[in-house]
Design goal:
alpha/beta, TIM Barrel, eight-stranded parallel sheet, two-stranded antiparallel ribbon, 16 helices, binds 5-thio-alpha-D-glucopyranose, binds manganese (II) ion
Length: 401
C-alpha cells in the first residue's frame, strides 16, 4: 500500500525535523532528569553526559548546557575534574555539539538551604561566590558565552529571617562582584538572570521578568546583564509570558530563554514544550521569530516520570519538532492575505492621526492636537473584528487554514 509521504519512515524530507541551524539546546539536567519528586524516588537510571551529547546531537540539537555539578561531582578532586572535562570536550567534538550556556548549582547541597548570594550566613555567601567563580571558569573553558543565574533558594520561608531590602542589595553585590570577575578575566560572557516566583522556597526574590529587568539597570555593568525567562515560571505567577518576553526583547535584554510548558499557576512542571498552552506558545514562537531573536532555543523541561530512556528521547525530539511546527504555522499566519488585510484595517494606517502621532512631541504637534476635534462616540461605536482575527489564528493553529 502506498502511504502518504508524511507517514513513510523516510523522515529526511520532514520539514519539521530539527537541525543544528535551528539552535536548539537542552540542559544536561533536563534529559538526565531521573524523575524523582517529593513523593517518589528515581525511576530512571543515570544518564551519562557523554550519552546525552551523543543522543541529542543525533536528534538534531545544537547545544548542551550545564550546571557545574551536572558534569563534575560537588566534591571531585582536581584530577577527576580534569579527566571528566577532557572526556566531555572529546564528546562535544566527536558529535559536533557546543556548550552555549553554563550555570552554577547553588541549590542542591544543604549548605545552600537558606540561599546562596542572599543567605544570612556570610560564610555561605562567600562560598557561593567561590563556587560560582570556579563554575564560570569551567563554563568558559567549555566555550559558554552566556552564564545563567537562577536564584534557586534565594528567598524565604520565614519572612522575619531576612530584610528584603538587604536581600536585594546582597544580590546586587554578588552580581556586581561576578561581572567584575568575568571582565577582569577577559571572558566574553554575558549574564542572564532567571526569575521564578517560588519553589523550592515559599517565596523567591526577583519573582518575574519585570522585577529582573528593573534590577538589571541598578547594576554596575548593565550592558552585560540580561534575562533568561522561563515559560513555566511566569505561568506560575499567572502572567502572559509572551508580553514579558516582548518587553525583554524590546529592551535588548533577551539573552537566553527557557522553553517548556506548564498547566497554570501551580508547582513548576517543566513539561515538554508546547504540550499544553498551544495558543500562547504559538504566539511566543511567532514573537521570537519575527523579532529576529538569534540566541539559543533552550529547552528546560523533562520527560514525564512514566518514561524510560526511550521516552526521554521522544520528549526531546517532541520539544524541537513542536517549535518548528509553530514556526511554520506562524509563517503561514503572517503570510495569509486575509490576516494581513484585517490587521491593516484595524490599525487604520491611512488615518491622518497616524502621521501626526509618528512625529512625536513638538510645539506644532501640541498645537495640532489641541485644535483637533474628535468624535469619541463614533470612535466608541466601531467594532474591531477581533473575533474574526482570533478565529483566524485558531484555525491556523489547528491546521485548517
Ligand atoms: C533548575 C531550575 C531551572 C533553571 C536551571 C538553571 S536549574 O532545573 O528549575 O529553571 O533554569 O539553574
Ligand atoms: Mn529554567
Ligand atoms: Mn522550571
Amino acid at each position: 500500500m502506498m502511504l502518504p509521504p508524511q507517514l513513510t519512515s523516510e523522515s529526511t524530507s520532514d520539514q519539521y525535523k530539527p537541525t543544528k541551524k535551528d539552535k536548539f539546546s537542552f540542559g544536561l539536567w533536563t534529559v538526565a532528569n531521573r524523575g524523582r519528586d517529593p513523593f517518589g524516588d528515581f525511576v530512571r537510571p543515570e544518564l551519562s553526559p557523554v550519552r546525552s551529547v551523543q543522543k541529542l546531537s543525533e536528534l538534531g540539537a545544537w547545544g548542551i548546557n550545564l550546571h557545574d555539578n551536572d558534569l563534575i561531582p560537588f566534591d571531585a578532586a582536581a584530577q577527576e575534574r580534569d579527566r571528566i572535562v577532557r572526556e566531555f570536550k572529546q564528546a562535544l567534538s566527536d558529535y559536533g555539539m557546543i556548550v552555549p550556556m553554563a550555570t552554577t548549582n547553588l541549590f542542591f547541597h544543604p549548605v545552600f538551604k537558606d540561599g546562596a548570594f542572599t543567605a544570612v550566613s556570610p560564610a555561605v555567601r562567600a562560598f557561593a561566590l567561590q563556587k560560582t567563580m570556579k563554575a564560570i571558569d569551567l563554563g568558559v573553558e567549555l566555550g559558554a558565552t552566556t552564564y545563567v543565574f537562577w536564584g534557586g533558594r534565594e528567598g524565604v520561608d520565614a519572612e522575619a529571617s531576612k530584610d528584603p531590602i538587604v536581600a536585594v542589595k546582597r544580590m546586587r553585590d554578588a552580581i556586581n562582584f561576578l561581572s567584575q570577575y568575568a571582565i577582569d578575566k577577559g571572558y566574553k560572557l554575558r549574564f542572564a538572570l532567571e526569575p521564578k516566583p517560588n519553589e523550592p522556597r515559599s517565596d523567591t526574590y526577583f519573582p518575574t521578568i519585570g522585577h529582573m529587568l528593573a534590577f538589571i539597570y541598578t547594576l554596575d555593568h548593565p550592558d552585560m546583564i540580561g534575562v533568561n525567562p522561563e515559560v513555566a515560571h511566569e505561568y506560575m505567577s499567572g502572567l502572559n509570558f509572551v508580553h514579558g518576553v516582548a518587553q525583554a526583547l524590546e529592551a535588548g535584554k533577551l539573552f537566553h530563554i527557557d522553553l517548556n510548558d506548564q498547566k497554570g499557576p501551580r508547582f513548576d512542571q517543566d513539561l515538554r514544550f508546547g504540550s499544553e498552552n498551544i495558543k500562547n506558545l504559538f504566539f511566543l514562537v511567532r514573537l521570537l521569530e519575527k523579532a529576529g531573536y538569534d540566541g539559543p532555543r533552550h529547552f528546560d523541561a523533562h520527560a514525564y516520570r512514566t518514561e524510560n530512556e526511550d521516552g526521554v528521547w521522544d520528549f526531546a525530539l517532541g520539544c524541537m519538532r513542536t517549535y518548528n511546527i509553530f514556526k511554520e504555522k506562524a509563517r503561514r499566519f503572517d503570510a495569509d492575505p486575509e490576516v494581513q488585510q484585517l490587521l491593516k484595517e484595524i490599525n487604520d494606517e491611512g488615518s491622518p492621526y497616524a502621521a501626526l502621532l509618528s512625529k512625536g512631541y513638538s510645539a506644532e504637534t501640541v498645537r495640532q492636537l489641541q485644535e483637533a476635534t474628535f468624535d469619541p462616540d463614533a470612535l466608541g461605536r466601531q467594532g474591531y473584528s477581533y473575533e474574526k482575527l482570533d478565529q483566524m489564528s485558531i484555525e491556523h493553529i489547528m491546521g485548517v487554514r
